[in-house]
Specification:
Elements: E1 2-8, H1 14-30, E2 36-44, E3 47-55, E4 60-67, H2 70-97, H3 101-108
Parallel strand pairs: 1-2
Antiparallel strand pairs: 2-3, 3-4
Helix pairs in contact: 1-2
């Protein structure tokens, strides 16, 4: 998994990178086969912006958040991505368990 950090009007500090790595490890357990992650962090006056995009062979996910603290913004964004990945996996599992249309028609008749 290749992780790229971009800081807009700020440097990306080591504790923020450590937080991102820890949360991305959890995300990689939920969403298999992550190839590329782009973390964008920015500061405008009192707004701290975090934006993360994740690419995998089957799915691309993205999330964005703005708060007063850079660490909180990043943690919130990565939690959003984990929820998106779980929702995506749930939809895939439901689709696998569904009966084919012909079998459903036979059971009703």
């Amino acid at each position: 998994m290749q992780v790229e950090y971009t800081g807009r009007q700020t440097e990306v500090p080591a504790p923020i990178r450590a937080l991102a790595e820890r949360k991305l490890k959890k995300l990689s357990r939920v969403l298999r086969g992550i190839t590329h992650v782009h973390v964008i962090l920015g500061v405008d006056k009192h707004r701290h912006l975090a934006e993360v995009s994740v690419r995998s062979p089957r799915r691309s996910l993205a999330a964005r958040d703005e708060t007063g603290d850079l660490g909180v913004s990043l943690a919130t964004v990565l939690d959003k991505l984990i929820r998106q990945a779980k929702r995506h996996n749930g939809k895939r599992q439901q689709r696998k368990r569904r009966l084919p249309a012909r079998a459903a028609a036979r059971s009703e008749a």
